[in-house]
TrEMBL record:
It comes from Paenibacillus mendelii. Residues 99-419 form the DUF4015 domain. GO terms for molecular function: hydrolase activity. Gene3D superfamilies: Glycosidases (3.20.20.80). The keyword DNA repair does not apply. Keywords: Hydrolase. This is Glycoside hydrolase. PROSITE patterns: PROKAR_LIPOPROTEIN. The lineage of its organism: Bacteria, Bacillati, Bacillota, Bacilli, Bacillales. Pfam families: DUF4015.
Amino acid sequence: MHKWIRLDQAFIMGIILLSLASVMSGCSSIERQPEVILPELKEQQVQHKPVSILQQKLVVKGSAERKYSFVIKDHAGESKPHRQAVNHPHNGVHKPVRGIYVSGWIAGDRKRLDRLIQLVDETDLNAMVIDVKNDYGNLTYRSSLPEVKAIHADRNPLISDIRSLLSELRAKHIYTIGRVVVFKDPLYAQSIPNGALQKKTGGIWKDRKGKPWVDPYLAAVQNYNIRIAEEAARLGFDEIQFDYVRFPDHGARVNEEVRFSNTKGVSKAEIIGSFLRQARARVHAAGALVSADVFGLVTSSEDDMGIGQSWRIVSSAVDFISPMTYPSHYSNGMYGIDQPDLHPKEIIRQAMVDANKRNTYLHKSGRQPAEIRPWLQSFTATWIHPHQHYGMNQIRMQIQAAMEQGVNQFLLWSSNCKYDYHS
C-alpha cells in the first residue's frame, strides 16, 4: 500500500528551511464544498437512505462503554444522510477514531477476523479500515455495478457477505472505513487500455514493478472509482477512504515518459483535488464520510511532491486526511533526525506540528480543513539498517507524540494485519 519517496538530501533540507508562510501562500482558488456539521464516532442500527427528519440518534463506543446521542444537521438546519459520529471541531463530545487495517483476505477469514474483533473489544480501538478495492484493482465483495462486472473486478470476492459483516461490526459499535485504492489499478488498466497511463512512445506505461496505472485525468476513471465508493457507502460503510489517490511517484521521470490525458493544462494537484471534491459530495449523498491517504512528507512538503498531493488541496476536500507517517519511510536527516526508524516519537511530533500549521492556515484563510488522522507504523521495517522491532512501546510513542500535538486519532498499519497492541 504505502510506498515512499527517498528524497535526496538537498531537497530534504530545502523543505526544512522553507518558511511556512511561503509554503502556504499559493492556496488553490478552487472552492470547497459546503460544510456539514457532524457528530463524533459511531451509530447503531443504521438505515442507508436519505434522512427525512431533522434528528438522527447515534451510539458510540465510549471508554466505559457509555452511549452518547447526537444530532446531525448542516448549516441550514437540514438533516444529512451522514450517520457517523466523528471527531469534529463543532462537537461537544470528543471520541476519536482509533483503528487498524484489515485486508480483504483477513476480513474474509472468520478465524483471523474474530481475533481482530476481539482485539478491538478488549482495547480502546474502535474502528477497522477494510479493503473495498485493493491494490490489484479487485473488489473484495460481489458488486452490482455493471462497470465492475464488465472487467470482472469482483470475480473472486474475498468477503462472501459484506452486508452481514458490516452489520456484525455495527452491532459491536465498530466504526467501518472502506479502503478504495484509486489510481493504482492494474486490472482496470489492462482491461480498458485507453484508461491507462500511456507512454509518449506508444503503449501502456508501467511503473518500476511492471504495474500499469490508470490516468487520473480521465472522467471515466474517476467515475468508476466514485461509483464503487458510493456502492460501498450504501452497503453500510461509515466512511470511504481513498488510497493511492495520486499519480505514480518519481514524478519527474513519469512526466518525461507519460502522455497524460490533460487537454486543459490542469495541474496534478488540481485534478486530485477536483476528484476528491466530486467524490466527497457523492459519497456524502450515499451516506458516508470521506478520507484520503497521503504520503507522510506531504505534511511538510512545499509542493505536491510530483504526485499531485498538496496538503492544502487535499485537506480542504475531504473530512479526514491520513498522512502515512511511518518513521521507517523517512530519509536519514529528515527533520534533522538520523536513522528515523529509531526515533518514532520525534518523527511523528514534527510531522504533526507541520500538519497542524497547514490546517491552521486553512482555517485562517476561511477554509474548513480535514481532521488529521495519521497512519502509524505497526510493522518492523527489516529492510532498513539499522532498524528496530515495532511493538507496543514504539506504537505508544507514536500515539503519544501525536496526542501531544492535539491529534487524538490514529490508524495502525500492518500489511499482514498483526498488531502488538493493548490499552
